[in-house]
Amino acid sequence: MDQAFLHSTPEGVTLTLTIQPNAKKSELVGVHDGALRIRIAAPPVEGAANKECIRFCAKLFGLSKSRVKILKGEKARHKVVLLKGAEMRAIQECLGGMVP
Question: Which family does it belong to (predicted)?
C-alpha cells in the first residue's frame, strides 16, 4: 500500500488529505494523487467542513478532537492534518483494511 500521505513527526503523525465537502455522509474514500480522500457531510462555510473533518479523523483514529489539528489548508480542499501524539504503526493499523 502506498502511504505517501502519512508522515511521522516528533509531534505525531501528519496526514495529507483531500476533502470533498457536502457529501451525504462522512467517509473514507481511499487514496488519490498521494492524499487520503475523505468525503465530509458538511458544507465548506464558516468552518463547518473543517470541524467535521476534525471530528471524523478523531473518531477514525480513536483520538480526542483536541489531538487533531489542521496545519495547512484551512480554506482549501487539500489539507495537512496533525494527529498529536499518535504513532505511525497505530495509524497504519487503523487504515489497514480501509485504504486500497
Answer: Belongs to the UPF0235 family.
Domains and CATH numbers, the chain: 6-95 (3.30.1200.10)
Sign of the torsion angle spanned by Cα atoms 53, 24, 98, 77: negative
Q: Give the position of cell 487533531.
A: 68
Minimal CA–CA distance to 38: which of 63, 8, 15, 62?
15
Whole-angstrom distance, CA of residue 61 vs CA of residue 66: 13
Report the alpha-carbon distance of residue 72 to residue 54 in Å, rounded: 13
User: From residue 8, how far is each of 23, 38, 39 by CA, in Å?
Assistant: 29, 20, 24
pLDDT tens for each residue of 3-39: 789 999 999 999 999 999 999 999 999 998 899 999 9
**What predicted TM-score, i.e. pTM, was given to this entire model?**
0.91
Angle, helix 48-61 to helix 88-95, in steps of 10 degrees:
100
